[in-house]
Each structure stands twice: as structure tokens, then as C-alpha cells.
């Protein structure tokens, strides 16, 4: 009986992360060849959706080893409202270095827009605090949207937001979250983005006293860079492994009090890392 349940869960999970490989396969074999801002060239498709039932487990890619530490620290950095890479560098996370100026600044990117959106009338809007308040007091709301896409400040950002908007939804005590990602680097960025928003869903659910539901990933321009094609083929030859599980060791009582050490991933058995250059 337990063996059967385990097998069913593994099959469910294989379907879980198989969705990522399906997107990769679609771009590789049916994508349009495009030139892009970075001068690298891509194969891209427009419009794609994946759905991860977070009760089955945590959607961390097993067909290539991922550095979960960078993902957790980056999310905590967004939640701090921080937009300077110094805090990341002090924690040995270098994924934003290429885009920072000589002072480490990225301009008013995610952290700024999430925690301190400046309105035309001078108000400062903490979208994350307001979201948690609404999740607690009016979970049926259809307006639980957080946007990093601030057209008035795009010119000052080192990179326009890729994961630019998300919406929350509560039914039967379960929190679901859908992300709209306008531009998606399938090989490097997307595995990070899926894990990051799955983690955010767990954190928001904990703060609002809810269970987790689905994380829905919706992509706009979904592309494989031309210097990631061999790596993609290698990954497509691999089969997803069993589902890892996330444990949050304590409830720190506030969205602002999480620490890296609060998160533990269990049963993460991944195939070897595959290196790929990032397009700047
Ligand atoms: N072209 C491009 N793709 C991205 O995914 C991306 C950007 N640019 N610019 C902004 C951020 C930075 N992000 C990044 C940047 C680098 C890696 C990267 O090099 N990942 C390696 C090692 C990661 C580590 O050091 O932990 C990987 O193999 O996943 C991933 C995401 C996501 N974003
Ligand atoms: O979280 C992220 C951040 C960035 N990306 C990728 C998507 C694109 O390949 C580049 C951004 O270039 P644009 O010309 O601004 O679209 O970075 C990602 O996948 N995930």
C-alpha cells in the first residue's frame, strides 16, 4: 500500500516537472529563431502555462542540480525591499552582479516596487504588506495583485522586471498564486523563478494562516538562448526524479523576519549541474 502511494506520488511529480521539460522541448523544436537585446539569439514561443500543486511537494528541478541557497537569499532580498547587490554579495550570491552599477545599485527593481511603490500623490505603497492584510481579512478579493511593472520608473531600472506581476487566490483555505513572466530564459531563469515563487506562496500562506494550493506559471516570450541548446538537449535526455519537500522550521510572525536558516528542503536528489553562460 505504502509502495503504491509512493509510486503514485512519484508519477504525479514526474508530471509536475515534466511540464518544464515540455516547455523546453517546445522552444527547442518549435521555437521561432529571433535576435534579441543581448545579441545572443534565441528560439522562442509566445504564451505558455504550467501548474504545480504545492501539496504534492516543492517544484525544485531534479533534472539538473539547482543552487537553492541563491534562490532563497534572492527572495529574502526582494522582500527586504533591497535593490543593491551588496546584501547579496555579503551572502555570496552573485546572480545580479552583471547588472549592478559601480555602487552596486540596480535602480528601482523588484524590492522597491513590492515594498515601496511611489504613487503620483506622494504615497508610499507596501504592496506585500497590503496583500497579506487582504489575504487575512478579505481572501475572496479578486484584486490581490502585486505588480513590479511600474512604467514610470522602467527607465531607471538596470533590467525591466521579467516576473512582472502576480495574483493570489484563496479557495477552501488554500492559497494559490499565479505569476505572469513577460520574458523567460528557459534554461537559467525559469527554474529559479518557479522555485522562488513556490517559496513565496508558502511564505504568504504561512503569514495568512492558509494552506498552499497551486502555483501557476504563465510565460510571455519564452526562449532558449542559442548558446543553451546543447545543454537543453542534454537535460531533455534526463527523467525527473521524486519530489522534494519544503519544511519551514518556524513561523517568524512577520513577513519581514524570515531568515535563510528557516527553510529546509528534504529529499532533493538531483542529477548533475549543467553549466550555461548567462546573456547580459
Ligand atoms: N539572461 C538572463 N537570464 C536570467 O535568468 C536573468 C537575467 N538575464 N538577468 C536578471 C536575472 C538574474 N538571474 C540569474 C542570473 C544568473 C543565473 C545563473 O548563472 N545561474 C547558474 C548558477 C547560479 C548560482 O550561482 O547559484 C545556474 O546554473 O543556475 C541564474 C539566474 C535571473 N535573471
Ligand atoms: O527572473 C528573471 C529575470 C530575467 N530573466 C531573463 C529573461 C530574458 O532572457 C532576460 C531579460 O531580458 P529582456 O530583454 O529584458 O527581456 O532575463 C528570467 O528569465 N528570469
Quickly give the structural class.
alpha+beta
CATH architecture: 2-Layer Sandwich
Tally of DSSP β-strands: 10
- What small molecules does this complex bind? 5,10-methenyl-6,7,8-trihydrofolic acid, ligand LAUPNLSC
**CATH fold node name:** Thymidylate Synthase, Chain A
3D shape: globular
In the CATH hierarchy, what is the class?
Alpha Beta
Helix content: 25-40%
Active site: 162
Main location: cytoplasm
Binding site for (6R)-5,10-methylene-5,6,7,8-tetrahydrofolate: 67, 185, 279
InterPro entries: Thymidate_synth/dCMP_Mease, Thymidate_synth/dCMP_Mease_dom, Thymidate_synth/dCMP_Mease_sf, Thymidylate_synthase
Architecture overview:
By secondary structure, the protein is α+β, with helices and mostly antiparallel strands. A six-stranded mixed beta sheet has the order 1-2-8-7-6-5. A two-stranded antiparallel ribbon has the order 3-4. It is globular. Helix 1 runs antiparallel to helix 7 and helix 2 crosses helix 6 (189-208). The protein has helices at 2-30, 68-79, 86-90, 110-116, 127-137, 189-208, 229-236, and strands at 32-34, 42-53, 117-118, 124-125, 145-147, 163-171, 174-185, 211-225, 245-248, 263-266. It binds 5,10-methenyl-6,7,8-trihydrofolic acid (MHF) and the ligand O=c1ccn([C@H]2C[C@H](O)[C@@H](COP(=O)(O)O)O2)c(=O)[nH]1. The site of 5,10-methenyl-6,7,8-trihydrofolic acid has 12 residues, from helix 6.
